[in-house]
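Help! Submission page says 'invalid entity' but I think these are all valid:
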Amino acid sequence: GAVVSQHPSWVICKSGTSVKIECRSLDFQATTMFWYRQFPKQSLMLMATSNEGSKATYEQGVEKDKFLINHASLTLSTLTVTSAHPEDSSFYICSARIGSWDTDTQYFGPGTRLTVL
Amino acid sequence: GQNIDQPTEMTATEGAIVQINCTYQTSGFNGLFWYQQHAGEAPTFLSYNVLDGLEEKGRFSSFLSRSKGYSYLLLKELQMKDSASYLCAVLDSNYQLIWGAGTKLIIKP
């Protein structure tokens, strides 16, 4: 089946630094990628939707300048947490969608655990 | 390698009961999640099992057998709004999520 990878798997950083998380679709081209944030035993919270070659669409309440998303190719999207603070510590998960607008099959990445000290 | 298997699609009748199975082979185990995802929406958390047994939460129950690498999600008194994809995901020894491909559940009147 389709595989989505994330790098790094986990990262610990100091408050005020920026962290970049990569999301790659390994064996398919993803027209759309999604970034989620997960809190323990809670639903995945959609942060933004990114389409290749265009600006990401952010969900209400998600700061665009803090969570920078770049979708430079059909196989790579990056999320940069700028000036990270302890409250940004979380599990970040990406997913990639194959196909056209009416194909709603998403493949999820393994997640990146961010800890901000 | 690591893999999670769940049926691609299931059909059930409104008011009935359906069981969605999930089998897994992962490097380590730190819990198993079930999510519900409606088309165009983010996955909604349903359950988290880390110990063997059945956990009931309203119309939904989730069962886990770690020795068998097996879980199921049981949905009772099915409603039309339960039509959705159901995702099984396992947290492995590195606390990485391994995802099943999802089971599309179709509810018929």
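Support: the input was valid. A stray whitespace character was the problem, and the output above is from the cleaned input. Chain B has a mean pLDDT of 94.
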